[in-house]
Design brief:
The chain is built from ten helices and 15 strands. With about 375 residues, the protein is of the alpha/beta class. The strands form four sheets. The protein has a seven-stranded mixed beta sheet, with helices on both faces. A four-stranded parallel beta sheet has the order 9-10-8-13, with helices on both faces. The longest helix is centred in the middle third of the chain and has 22 residues. The protein is elongated, with a radius of gyration of 22 Å. Bound molecules: 6-O-phosphono-beta-D-fructofuranose. The site of 6-O-phosphono-beta-D-fructofuranose has 13 residues, from strand 12.
């Protein structure tokens, strides 16, 4: 059996742990030959490969990044290096040239959509759900999210102490694209007073009300966890730059500065902003992500060995399962108002900056 592996889209902690698990498990289970494609689908299009033997897959569990490299622009159906041409037949040719029985793609929604289309061209594909954003449907968790949420929580803990000393409003911006999972988990984990998510456009008056109530109540500092996609009601998301050739060219960033400027104009307290950025994607995965990556990778190998096709491995209620690409591709899992963590946050007095999701501060002493 010959199996290809690639990592696509933005990197995240746990990619190497999945490469390790897929490779070792395939060798262990069926003596497979494993070949890695370099820089995501670019490697498949341009036949750029590196061998993945047992020794190559050793020492990867704790290593950040991806030893295979990745790309967020290498879409075979719209290849940026060739003026957006459809080079998917060439990519399929490389797959066949290598005599592959299957290709394991480790990536987010963009990667799963491409995998789905390649599967429809007759290639056997199995996906593994990666992204710090945790926004893939069909799985309770993506690997990389726990690490990003941990990094963001720790950053907010540190902002907490300096906010307290200087009696400031500290606004901390997380990644997450159009989903607020990182800001929600880190905000709850760090005890933020206000959590602002793309899913619930905020009302400036409501955020001001919380800050002023804290000033008046003697708690002369406020911690705000804001997702990069958060925006005021009726306003736009803050765009940092656009990347031509990327499947989603918009790169968000600066939501904290938009909010900070608006708050500072109306508050006595000073306001400071922090954008966490790619720090959330770097370094070693948490134990949770190491375990999840190992489970995802070995389960993907099992699916390949069992002949599965067109599915993404997933974790549901703690168990491994397989979800068809068709149920996953081009969809985004967003935070819902009835999410148990949103309700828990409200119960402990956290505001989501909108009248519909703000606890009654008067009852909270
Ligand atoms: O999807 C992962 C992610 O880190 C998002 O949270 C963020 O918006 C985006 O990728 C950043 O992309 P890039 O690495 O291209 O700046």
């Amino acid at each position: 059996m010959r199996v290809g592996v690639l990592t696509g889209g933005g990197d995240c902690p746990g990619l190497n742990a999945v490469i390790r698990a897929v490779t070792k498990s395939l060798i262990h289970r069926c003596g497979a030959e494993v070949v890695g494609f370099v820089d995501g689908f670019r490697g498949l299009i341009e036949n750029d490969t590196q061998p993945l033997g047992w020794a190559d897959a050793s020492g990867l569990l704790t290593l950040g990044g991806t030893i295979l490299g990745t790309s967020n622009k290498a879409n075979p159906f719209q290849y940026w290096r060739e003026d957006g041409a459809d080079v998917s037949d060439r990519a399929a040719g490389v797959y066949r040239e290598h005599g592959l029985d299957a290709l394991v793609v480790i990536g987010g929604d963009g990667t799963m959509s491409i995998a789905h289309r390649l599967q429809q061209k007759g290639l056997r594909m199995v996906g593994v759900p990666k992204t710090i954003d945790n926004d893939l449907v069909g799985t309770d968790r993506t690997f990389g999210f726990d690490t990003a949420a941990m990094i963001a929580t720790e950053a907010m803990d540190r902002l907490h102490t300096t906010a307290q000393s200087h009696h400031r409003v500290m606004i901390c911006e997380t990644m997450g694209r159009y989903a607020g999972w990182i800001a929600l988990y880190a905000g709850v984990g760090a005890g933020a007073d206000v959590v602002l998510l793309p899913e619930f456009p905020y009302h400036l008056d409501e955020v001001l009300r919380v800050c002023k109530a804290r000033e008046a109540g003697g708690q002369r500092f406020t911690i705000i966890s804001i997702a990069e996609g958060a925006h005021p009601e009726g306003g736009e998301m803050a765009v940092a730059k656009t990347i031509p050739g990327s499947p989603d060219p918009v790169r968000l960033g600066g939501a904290c500065q938009v909010l900070g400027a608006a708050l500072e104009a109306q508050l006595e307290s000073e306001v400071r902003t922090t954008i966490l950025g790619h720090v959330q994607r770097g370094g070693s995965p948490t134990p949770f992500d190491r375990v999840l990556s190992t489970r995802f990778g070995t389960y993907a190998a099992q699916l390949v060995a069992d002949g599965a096709n067109g599915v993404m491995v997933a974790r549901r209620d703690g168990k491994m399962t397989a979800v068809p690409f068709a149920e996953v591709a081009d969809k985004t899992k967003l935070v819902q108002a009835d999410d148990p963590l949103v309700r828990a946050a409200l119960d402990v007095g956290t505001s989501f900056g909108t009248p519909a999701l703000t606890p009654d501060l008067d009852t909270m002493g």
